[in-house]
Specification:
Elements lengths: L14 E6 L3 H14 L3 E6 L2 H11 L3 E5 L1 E2 L2 E2 H11 L5 E5 L4 H9 L4 E4 L7 H37 L3 H16 L4 E7 L3 E8 L17
Parallel strand pairs: 1-2, 1-3, 3-6, 6-7
Antiparallel strand pairs: 4-5, 8-9
Length: 218
């Protein structure tokens, strides 16, 4: 049984954030405050639509935080560019002049979150938490997709492979390619013969000896 995204426990590592606002002083100060609030945040800033698009292409950030009003366009223009590449990448729209129309449009166009600047004017920790929540949810969903794909691929290997040796080779390849192992090997063990290798990927050789309690093989 597969877990739901809410049940997948994802521990956050480094989080690259692209912060966009046409107020250069505000975006600089807020970027520093976010990095101070969360050590795992690395914030890159941009002050107009063109610069934001270039920064997004170079950085490929974990989360975009963008003001609604931008020089040369709006946050919706940047959102469209982001969604062309990734329909689920966390995108937090912030604004000081938002209204119900802007909020409704933001939701319909696929923003991850919508936050008024006044909500975190005295506590940037609120914005940090919203970013953290969005990234955690995104990574959990990606982990769940990988788990589903991995299980389906293993099922395909089992159902389509006819020999034990080939099955072992395919499983080893899968473990290395999909799960990041440097090497994988599969073998059998009997007290009389010891380790008998069947297949290995990424290994220079097989284990030629093993000492384990006999009751492990009953």
């Amino acid at each position: 049984m597969l877990a739901s995204p809410d049940e997948v426990n994802v521990s956050l590592s480094d989080v690259a954030v692209l912060l966009v606002d046409d107020d250069e002083s505000w975006v600089t100060v807020t970027g520093r405050l976010l990095e101070r609030e969360r050590e795992l945040f690395s914030v890159t800033t941009a002050t107009d639509l063109s610069g934001a698009r270039e920064a997004y292409e170079e950085l490929d950030p974990d989360c975009v935080v963008c003001d609604y009003q931008l020089g040369g366009g709006t946050g919706f223009d940047l959102l469209a560019s982001v969604r062309e590449r990734n329909r689920n990448r966390p995108f937090v729209l912030i604004t000081s002049k938002g209204n119900e129309v802007v909020a409704s449009t933001a939701i319909s166009r696929g923003v991850t979150d919508y936050v008024r600047k006044s909500a975190f004017a005295d506590d940037v920790g609120l914005l940090a938490r919203r970013i953290e929540t969005a990234v955690r949810s995104y990574r959990a969903e990606r982990a769940l997709v990988r788990e589903r794909r991995s299980k389906q691929e293993l099922l395909d290997i089992v159902t389509e492979t006819t020999s034990r040796e080939e099955l072992a080779r395919q499983v080893c390849r899968h473990l290395v390619a999909e799960h990041g192992y440097k090497c994988a090997w599969i073998g059998t063990y009997t007290p009389a013969e010891g380790v008998v290798p069947l297949a290995g990927v990424g290994c220079d050789g097989y284990l030629d000896g093993m000492r384990l309690p006999p009751d492990r093989f009953r």
